[in-house]
Amino acid sequence: MIRRTLAALVTLALAAGVSAAAPATAAAPLPSQWRGYWVDAFNEGVYTPAQVTKLVQDAQKIKANALIVQIARRYDCFCNRALYPRTDAAIAPLPYDPLDEVIAQGHAAGMQVHAWVNVNTMWNSATPHSSPEHVFNKHGLNATGADRWLNKRADGLERMGNNAYMDPANPGAVNYIVQAIQSIMREYDVDGINLDYVRYPDFNSTTTHSDWGYSETSLARFHAATGRTDVPAASDPQFSDWRRTQMTNLVRKIYLGMWEVDPRARLSMDGITYSYGPQTMGGWEKTRPYAEVLQDWKGWQAEGIMDTVVAMNYKRNWMPDQKQMFDEWTEVLADWQGERQAVVGPALYLNDIPDSVTQVRTALAPTAAGNTVAGWSGYSYANPTRAGVGQSAAVRDAERDLLVQALTQGPDAPFANEVAVPSMPWKYTPSEGHVAGRVTLRDGTPLDQIKVTLQPLTTGGSAVSRLADGDGWFGFVHLDPGFYLVQIELPNGTVGRPVAVARVTAGGVAKTDFTQLIRL
């Protein structure tokens, strides 16, 4: 997080000739609005310290307050001190650390830095990563059984060209993802983590269901959870719901894992907005994000396990059908935020400058219900306009400056004024707490998909139940402070033992492990 001590503020004040004994009247707070760029690592932008300097300067021109910087592309890290191995990309040699550099320069300029992490994209090259510790080398094509973390399509394919994907139903893969994100947060002063590809893959036979999730581990866990023995069809509703639950379990585990390291860090994700919105499709459950790639970002916000949805609302404003798509998704993003936040992320590379300005105005305007999104994030810094795609760096720089001019110059320009990143009161001044734990046998074997029920003892509300994940882990979020009974339903149907009492405090995570209590 960006921090300034009182002593530092006094020093700055004295240097400016302001008396510490008689401080000047505090300036009015800036209006709240997320504003920034996605900065992808497949293009230059953070490869050298000089590129970072230029990135920060360019972001200042647009009055940005946040940068979403791709740090983990395909489980290779643009950093030196994380569980992910350092990238093989042509970045400046050691000891250069791109994430350190972006944080130092970005924070000095008053911007937040959010580490963009690709979740379920394992690798995308015919040449393996140089590190034997890379997940594709350890848990890819040469691995077997539960150590094989590859997702598999219904037709048996595990790679689409050179693209390989992580299986979110594999407990080992899930734990690695959570631990890797925690490692970034422990080692670097990031303001948040931004999740990309937190979903099942593309390359499906239809837009109504996912063809993925057929790994040996995934099917075995599905059979254990349902009692079925068949290979379910990709369109099977029970199988789709089960796979979607695996994604939600992963997000919940990331959310609470981050909370344990830094309760004030923001978890954001890149929400899919394929095709038309729910207004045209007949509801959220019939949209492509929910049905085809099994990404329930609406549900994640409602549960409170996603602070900010940064929606990839990649539409061409100059095409009437896509303009309708953009407008529909923008409306529901604003109206579905609830107590969390949504940011519209347009595709700058698909539009000329007038169309991008139109999309900014549309994104920031109130909906019919009177709601507005939390802000704007342009995709991407490297390709700021349609006219610049495939052109030289000089042309793209000139296009970026023209976009800045159109967005910031003039009293009615949408980015004429400075803004502040919206606060997160549920994290900055929390009034709720959480419960997390793990269920295992005495020898450490996790009890997969065991039913865990949380019953309020001293607060209002009803009991809530969910299944532990493949590592026996469970979590409940945003609970009123008080005492809760935690009850485990054993595989033979016995209810009532074991039980424990969790004391929830504001801002805390009550740990309730059942690792020494269960004997089958």
Q: Considering the protein shown, what is the CATH homologous superfamily of the largest domain?
A: Glycosidases
Structural class: alpha/beta
Strand percent estimate: 15-25%
Number-wise, the strands total 19
Mean pLDDT level: 93
What characteristic shape results from the CA principal axes? globular
Instruction: Using the coordinates shown, work out and report the CATH topology of the largest domain.
Output: TIM Barrel
Helical stretch tally: 14
Domain count: 2
CATH hierarchy, class of the largest domain: Alpha Beta
Helix content: 25-40%
Terminal CA distance reads 46 Å
The side-by-side strand order for the widest beta sheet comes to 1-2-3-7-8-9-10-11
Low-confidence stretches: 2-22
Provide the CATH architecture of the largest domain.
Alpha-Beta Barrel
Question: Could you describe the largest sheet, including whether it forms a barrel?
Answer: 8 strands, parallel, barrel
Q: Determine Rg (CA atoms, Å).
A: 24 Å
Architecture overview:
The protein is of the alpha/beta class and 520 residues long. It has helices at residues 6-15, 49-61, 98-108, 135-139, 171-187, 216-226, 237-261, 278-281, 288-291, 297-303, 320-335, 353-364, 393-408, 425-428; strands at 34-39, 66-72, 112-118, 121-123, 159-160, 163-165, 192-196, 266-272, 308-313, 341-346, 375-378, 433-441, 451-456, 464-467, 473-479, 482-489, 499-504, 509-511, 514-518. The protein has 14 helices and 19 strands. The protein has an 8-stranded parallel beta barrel with strand order 1-2-3-7-8-9-10-11, surrounded by 4 helices. Helix 12 (353-364) links the parallel strand 10 (341-346) and strand 11 (375-378). It is globular and about 70 Å long. The two termini are 46 Å apart.
